Structures are given as C-alpha cells and as structure tokens.
UniProtKB/TrEMBL annotation:
This is Phosphotransferase. Pfam families: APH. Residues 103-241 form the Aminoglycoside phosphotransferase domain. InterPro entries: AGP_Transferase, Aminoglycoside_PTrfase, Kinase-like_dom_sf. Gene3D superfamilies: 3.90.1200.10. The lineage of its organism: Bacteria, Bacillati, Bacillota, Bacilli, Bacillales.
Length: 310
C-alpha cells in the first residue's frame, strides 16, 4: 500500500481514487476520493512533502491551533514522509478573477484584505519566538536580474532598459539594506490568488511554507502581484491601511508607505522572476509574458519614483 492508503486505513477511511494535481509544487499533491468511517463519500487534498521543502509541515506543528480559522487542515502526519490532509477547497480565487467586473474585483479584494488584517492582528505571545523573521535581502534582486538578462538575450521584444529599471530601483532606494519600520506580525508569506480559496462565504489560505514574522505589508505586496490594474492596486493599498488603523495596529502612515513601497518593488521583482521561470517551463504564453513584464517593470518604475519623491 502507498502512504496515503495506509494512513487513511488507520483513520478507518477507504481510498477510492487518487488523482495527482499537476503544477510546480513543494511535494506531491493529490485530490483523493474517500469513504469515511461513517460511510460518507468525500474529496480531500493530500499533500506529501519532500525533505528539503517541508517548512509548511513545521509551521503547522507550531501554529496548528492558531491557523485553524484560516486553514482547512484536517490532519498532519509528522512521521516520514511528512504530509497533510486538507478539505478540498475546489478552484483557487485566481481562476476567473481577471474577467470579473471592476466592482466585483474590489469586493473580493476587500474580503481578502479583511482576512489578512485578522491574521496580522493575532497576538502570538512566545510562539512568535520560534518563527523565522522575514527581511529584504539581495535574493530576489539577483534572481530577477538573472531572469531578466535571460529574457533579453533570447527575445528581441525584451528591452535592455528593463534591466536598468531593476538596477536603478534597488540602487537608489538602497533596497538591500532597508530595515522594516512596522512592528512584526505573523504573515502568510505567499498569499497570491492561487493560494486563496472562497468556500462557504469564507476566505481560506493554503501553502503556509513561507510563514514568518514580518511587516503586514509583506503579505499585501505579494497579494497584489496578481492585480494588473494600477488604480486597483492603489485602492487596495489605501483600503488596507484604513483596516490596520481601525484595528489599532501601531504603524504611522509614513512607515506604512515606506514598507509598502520597498516590499512592493522587492516582491514585484520576485514575481517577475517567477513568471519568467514559468514561461520557460511552458506554463505562460509568450504574449502573456510580454504583458506581465511590461506591466511589472512599469509598476517598479512608478513606485520607485513615488518612494524617491520624483
């Protein structure tokens, strides 16, 4: 028997079907159909981690009760191979988002931002001492620069000034050495729309691999990587600042703005590098790659100018 079959048998569940979920994942993921101990037929998600990408299992060990309102985790297996069992949340929120009318997008983003504000308002106590602390480093810049050079050497439509835009933004803003201004709070670390699901009128998060103590703007600037409308990005930015203020989160408007601008540029560079990687793996079309790169470089230039007061 395979690991999921054995583990489900121990729960007095019977595995009826196991379908792999394809994509770039930190391990093996399956949608499984089971008969439970009370003879109910249901579908779940079984995720088995590889050893070098098992951070999510460690996060659940430390924060399982804390994350219960945000995650549909059913069970964690800490023995090798580490694995989790989750409710089947069906389609991620990214599916169909781009086709939604503007007002629907706004309402959906407000719903997500409220959930993130709830997460960022948690008081962890001593548990926080066991979590990693996120800070800006040179990692995304170096990867983004390499990926952009890769794109420019292979395609005539890729513009050399895009490389200069990255270099200018990081150099002028001293991004490698930026110190977060916000008090640190629990952040998801990767809340883009493929990791968010709408079920039973609630927003649920998956993939907590990169959870860490950080500025709450870490999550917001990652969430906004799936938004390709500058007005909607700025609307979400202001709306979230108002949410934090209403919750009494201790951050000034200036510190909020500085954290947002620096983290947004760093995460836009990260996501641009990741989209280029997906393009060369065949997950993104060439036409879409052009659109993504043009938009994200424009955003990096826009926010860099705002941060520099130009």
């Amino acid at each position: 028997m395979t690991s999921p079959e054995l583990r489900l048998k121990e729960m007095n569940w019977q595995l009826l079907n196991k379908e792999p979920i394809t994509g770039v994942h930190a391990g093996s993921i399956y949608r499984i159909t089971v008969t439970t101990h009370d003879n109910n037929r249901s579908t779940y998600i079984y995720k088995e981690f590889v050893k070098e990408r098992n951070n999510e299992a460690d996060v659940y060990k430390k924060l399982q009760s804390t994350l219960k309102p945000f995650s549909k985790l059913i069970k964690l297996w800490d023995s090798s191979p580490q694995a989790i069992l989750m409710c089947d949340l069906h389609a991620p929120m990214k599916e169909g988002f781009i086709e939604l009318p503007l007002e629907n997008k706004k309402n959906l983003l407000k719903h997500i931002l409220k959930r993130l504000a709830d997460l960022h308002s948690l008081h962890l106590g001593k548990i926080a001492d066991d979590l990693p602390v996120h800070s800006i480093s040179s990692e995304w810049y170096e990867w983004g620069l390499d990926q952009m050079k890769r794109l420019c050497t292979r395609h005539k439509w890729a513009k050399p000034e895009w490389i200069q835009s990255l270099q200018h933004a990081y150099s002028k803003l001293g991004l490698h050495h930026y110190k977060i201004k916000s008090p640190l709070t629990l952040t998801h670390g990767d809340p883009h729309l493929e990791n968010l699901f709408l079920l039973d009128e609630g927003i649920w998060f998956i993939d907590w691999e990169w959870a860490a103590m950080a500025s709450p703007l870490r999550d917001i600037t990652i969430l906004l990587q799936d938004i390709y409308d500058p007005d909607l990005i700025q609307y979400s930015n202001k709306y979230y600042r108002d949410l934090l203020e209403a919750k009494g989160f201790p951050i000034s408007k200036e510190d909020y703005r500085n954290d947002f601008n620096h983290l947004y540029i760093d995460h836009t560079t990260m996501m641009l590098a990741w989209e280029i990687e997906k393009y060369y793996k065949g997950y993104v079309s060439e036409e879409r790659m052009k659109e993504i790169t043009t938009f994200k470089i424009r955003e990096i230039n826009r926010v860099a100018k705002e941060a520099l007061g130009e």
